[in-house]
Design goal:
The chain contains six helices and eight strands. It has about 180 residues and is an alpha+beta fold. The mean pLDDT is about 90.
């Protein structure tokens, strides 16, 4: 069974640690990531059954109060999303390259899920706010038409909420560029 994921992003590290504790204690969820991110923000990413994730995220938002930035709940997250967050993606063939950059971590995760579910691409990496000023980016590979489709889908999500920074398609990247991406 595909699990749900949920995330709460805060602009306080202290309140983030407290909120992570409350979220973990609130139900049958597993914390995937609970750590400070740039610039002085805190991210909590959890997984579990949809009901438990929803309840945990709601309690996290409630506790975060004025320190709340963003959140998400994705019920049936695509397995590639978790692989790309954990840097455990195994790419068999590199092809064209798609890159989406966002101001929001929640938007990047939501876009990655939509891209994976609707395009014939392989997610490579989903970098979430660490060492990049709190931004996030997604890289994925596939044939050029699939990359274009993925870029359109992911960019639309970021455009709708004002969180898209940049989008890029490299139809024929040099093989060396992939060495730096995973």
């Amino acid at each position: 069974m595909t699990k749900a994921i949920g995330m709460v992003e805060l602009n306080s590290i202290a309140k983030g640690i407290e909120t992570a504790d409350i979220m973990f204690k609130s139900g049958d969820v597993e914390i995937l990531i609970s750590k400070p991110i740039c610039p002085g923000k805190f991210m909590i990413l959890i997984t579990g059954d949809v009901g438990a994730v929803k309840s945990s995220v709601e309690k996290g938002i409630e506790n975060a109060k004025n320190y709340f930035i963003d959140s998400l709940i994705l019920p049936k997250v695509h397995p590639q999303v978790l692989e790309s967050i954990n840097y455990s993606t195994k790419i068999e063939k590199y092809n064209a390259l798609g890159i989406l950059e966002f101001y929001s971590i929640a938007t990047a995760i939501t876009a990655a899920d939509a891209v994976a579910k609707t395009s014939q691409v392989q997610l490579m990496e989903l970098r979430l706010g660490v060492g990049i000023g709190g931004k996030s980016f997604l890289t994925f590979t596939g044939d050029v038409s699939s990359i274009r489709e993925g870029i359109e889908i992911g960019a639309k999500i970021g455009e709708e909420n004002g969180m898209l920074v940049c989008k890029s398609i490299i139809p024929s990247p040099s093989p060396e560029i992939f060495e730096f991406l995973i």
